[in-house]
Amino acid sequence: MRFSIRSLLAILLLCAISFPLVTGIADLRRDEEMRMQLRVEIETLRERMALDDPQRRRIKQHQRDELTSIRAVRERAERQFETLQQKYGGIEIRGGDVLSLRTVPQLRRDKTQPPVVFRIRVPTDRDVWLKYAVIPAEGVSRSPDQLDDRQDPPVGSGFAHPGHYEWKLEPGEHLLAVETGPARGKVLPASVRLGDKPLLETEFSGDGIPSTGAYHISGTKQIDYPPQRPLPWLLNIKVDLRHDDNSRQDAPFDGCLWLSDRSSGYDPFPHTMVDP
Amino acid sequence: MMPKFATVLFVCTLAVMIAGLGWVGMTRRSIARDIVQLRQELESLHKSTRLEKTLRAQFDSDVDLIASVFDQCRTADDLPRLGGHRIISNADNGESVAFYVPQGGHQLGVRCVWKPTAGKANSATSPEADTATAESLAGESTWSIPLVAERSYLFDRVGSWNVVQPIGWKLACDDESSFPVRTEMLPLPPLRANGGSWSTYRRAVFPNQVNFKVLGDATGRAFIASPLRLAEWSRYCRIDDVGLKIEFELTLTSDNPPVVSATDAEVCLILSKGDRLGDYLGGGRYAVRTH
Q1: Where are the domains of chain B?
Q2: How many angstroms separate the CA atoms of B176 and B59, rounded?
Q3: Shortest alpha-carbon distance between residue A225 and chain B (Å)
């Protein structure tokens, strides 16, 4: 069989045109399938959302009323909480040498543990030190006298900052906030702030998912410390570890905060050195 | 001169292929436009679904926050007057229950039941005497207290469970001028609790709110809404070596006709129980046809 050049060119031309045609048809079928898939998805969603049923559509609108009508109630509750915070979170001045403290009520929001906030009034005629140490969870007295004598931070406690730290509090009123969590995987962040100023931003990491509870001095009423009364232990960051088999175990070390009349010669809190 | 067959075939094939190419191109452009529109529609539907989920999560979070405010109230004066159409209550420590009642008539039901628990017999007394003591220690008291609407209340125990003293309860309102404090004592000798158990109850419901299940179960017959359980807890005590269990139950009875939430109203429609739905009452509530 013989082909002339003209025939060959004609066949080549047809082949050249058929190639985009074939791929175009394949793409067309793919696009068509996608369009069908989108239509089915939309139909399913519309059915689920009842967009084509006027009665259900009306009910859906009323569901919004149902869910949003609680907002005004929540706002009233929040306003009342602000009043309660002032009522139960304030302290009265008892004298030039009396330290007073109280916990300030906090709201639990979005299932996260609220910070523990202390209002501390440091008298003008007295030196007051805030101290932090990582201590064994068991067998250590919470007496500030004994805590003051602790030296040599433990190794391998799980806390990123083993301490020990101290900071001399200025006379006047302070808000000391200790916040722990929420855990990020096996890491539990913890921070200590004095007013706006961070004193310590640390974290605990260990063999398990950590969580913690508020374990602190009860300050629902104002507590006063005249010079003859030792200054108090404030709070322990106690960590509870959940293992893969769901068993629970207390971490062997706590982060501990307390107040003292004297310096123990500890380093300053790490973040006080960063701030000017 | 007639064209050759091959030439005609070539020209026709070429024409068909070019036309085909044009059609494919135009159709694809049209489908592409459709796909863009459909994607936009789908995204808008997903957005609505997400909004619905966010609204529900926000509702739960709002109720938690209100309960958290109730937790911070130490006296009835501290309670917020919440407003709205819902009964909101919080009981999570087995000691006190804070709640708000909206417009309408409401009665608080308090039921205390005490009964001996199986325990070791006192060796110093005869078994008959023990049985007699135990029987005399079984009893029940109930109270029904009409409440003033649109007020918050704090139900609390009288005294402490940790020292030996008479047992009772106290109901106080955020507005003492409209509802004086009510105190009642149980007809039991002074005692001290050595344990207890309780469940967490958190409510944010319309008075006499029934769910789709109640409506489904009541198909074809009349019904009334059950009282709303606000809390229940138990305390364990000992009197003369006889163990005693005291159970408390708090319920709220409202006098309005039953209602159903818009969420349950939709389920009713899906389950073909829409004939039970009455008028829309506002705030996400529907009246219910009770018969």
Answers
A1: 1-72, 73-288
A2: 31
A3: 25
Bridge-based pairing state of the strands B201-205 and B87-91: antiparallel
Asked whether the beta carbons of residue A31 and residue B28 sit closer than 8 angstroms, the reply is yes
Which regions of chain B are under pLDDT 70?
Answer: 1-3, 94, 119-136, 218-222, 290-291
Residues 6 or more apart whose CB falls under 8 angstroms from that of B106 comprise: B87, B146, B147, B149, B207, B252, B253, B254, B255
Chain A residues with CB under 8 Å of B86 CB are: 69-70, 73
Q: A–B: how many Cβ contacts below 8 A?
A: 165
Range scoring the smallest mean pLDDT among A114-123, A267-276, B138-147: A267-276
The answer to whether the Cβ–Cβ distance between B282 and A65 falls below 8 Å is yes
Q: Which of B6, B41, B69 comes nearest A42 by C-beta? A: B41
- Write a three-state SS string for chain A: CCCCHHHHHHHHHHHHHHHHHHHHHHHHHHHHHHHHHHHHHHHHHHHHCCCCCHHHHHHHHHHHHHHHCHHHHHHHHHHHHHHHHHHHHCCCCCCCCCEEEEEECCCCECCECCCEEEEEEECCCCCEEEEEEEEECCCCCCCHHHHHCCCCCCCCCCECCCEEEEEEECCEEEEEEEEECCCECCEEEEEEEECCEEEEEEEEECCCEEEEECCECCCCCCEEECCCCCCCEEEEEEEEEECCCCCEEECCEEEEEEEECCCCCCEECHHHHHCC
User: What value of ipTM does the predicted structure carry?
Assistant: 0.81
Closest CA to B251 of B227, B274, B269: B227
Q: How far is A85 from chain B (nearest CA, A)?
A: 9
Taking CA atoms, what residue in B is nearest to A87?
Answer: B78
Contact B24 A25 (CB under 8 A): yes
Cβ(A65)–Cβ(B262) below 8 Å = yes
User: pLDDT value at position A122?
Assistant: 93
Task: Please report, rounded to a whole number, the percentage of residues in chain A having pLDDT higher than 70.
Answer: 96
pLDDT given at position A151 = 78
The Cα A52–Cα B150 span in angstroms is 40
In tens, the pLDDT along A23-59 reads 999 999 999 999 999 999 999 988 887 777 888 888 9
> pLDDT category, A270, cuts 50, 70, 90?
confident
User: Which residue among B21, B74, B88 sits closest to A24, beta carbon to beta carbon?
Assistant: B21
The C-alpha angle with vertex A99 and arms to A94 and A100, in degrees rounded to 5, equals 70
